[in-house]
């Protein structure tokens, strides 16, 4: 984390070692792969409440992600208030109506057809929680001075991936929702100008009749996403 005046390097002995024998490492990562393959993006949520402590802990996992220069250029807003969720839904659907009525272009809309999405976003009010992810384009010290953040999109992407994995570990489901543009979220949630909203994650337990698009189960095989050079 950036602190004004801290510019020197200090080596710290590795505080935690989790090395395993090769056979145990392979068994564990195969088990993790099997569990992560059970992760799905869900649009139908149960009304069952989710304790705030679970949400807080998942966001703490996100905060442990690596980042450029360790500046941690992210902020997460967890919204459980029904009135605020309704305002976010209204703002998102306004942007989505413009998107689906022609702003996206025919090719983009055709690509979304198998997913079954549309301008209406009931999940934004149905889900017990919305987690809004903000990227901090620059930082501000306690005395108001700006400082540069580095690799912001990459860093926020890493943290969001940690968050989604943590939510799945808790047995929760979420949906990666990105209305465009999202500037309205700064005003609704009272976030400063240096923060850019990048994603809304509706979070909760899946509804009894929850479905996912069949196409979402199609994942590229390993040989299409991996090149090994040795």
Structure notes:
- This protein is of the alpha+beta class and 230 residues long.
- The protein has a single domain (41-212), classed as NADH Oxidase (3-Layer(aba) Sandwich).
- The chain has 8 helices and 6 strands, in the order ααβαααβββαβαβα.
- A 4-stranded antiparallel sheet has the order 1-2-6-5. The protein has a two-stranded antiparallel ribbon with strand order 3-4.
- Helix 2 (52-62) crosses helix 6 (152-169).
- The longest helix has 22 residues, at 82-103.
- The radius of gyration is 20 Å and the shape is globular.
- The model has no long low-confidence stretch (mean pLDDT 93).
Tags for this model:
oxidoreductase activity, 8 helices, Nitroreductase family protein, two-stranded antiparallel sheet, about 40% helix, about 230 residues, Nitroreductase/BluB, Nitroreductase-like, NADH Oxidase, four-stranded antiparallel sheet, alpha+beta
């Amino acid at each position: 984390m950036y602190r004004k005046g801290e510019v020197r390097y200090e080596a710290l002995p590795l505080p935690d070692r989790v090395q395993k024998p090769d056979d145990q490492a392979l068994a564990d990562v195969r088990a993790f792969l099997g569990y992560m393959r059970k992760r799905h993006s869900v649009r139908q949520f149960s009304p069952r409440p989710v304790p705030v402590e679970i949400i807080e802990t998942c966001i703490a996992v996100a905060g442990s992600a690596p980042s450029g220069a360790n500046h941690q250029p992210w902020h997460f807003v967890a919204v459980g208030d029904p009135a605020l969720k309704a305002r976010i839904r209204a703002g998102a659907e306004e942007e989505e109506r413009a998107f689906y009525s022609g702003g996206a272009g025919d090719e983009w809309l055709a690509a979304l057809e198998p997913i079954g999405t549309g301008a209406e976003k009931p999940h934004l009010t149905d889900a017990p929680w919305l987690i809004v992810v903000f990227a901090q384009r620059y930082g501000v010290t306690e005395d108001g001075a700006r400082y540069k953040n580095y690799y912001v999109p990459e860093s926020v992407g890493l943290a969001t991936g940690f968050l989604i994995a943590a939510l799945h570990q808790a047995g929760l489901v979420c949906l990666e929702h990105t209305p465009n543009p999202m500037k309205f979220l700064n005003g609704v949630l009272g976030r400063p100008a240096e923060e850019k909203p990048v994603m809304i994650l509706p979070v909760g337990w899946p509804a009894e009749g929850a479905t996912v698009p069949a196409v979402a189960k199609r994942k590229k095989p390993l040989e299409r996403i991996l090149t090994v050079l040795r």
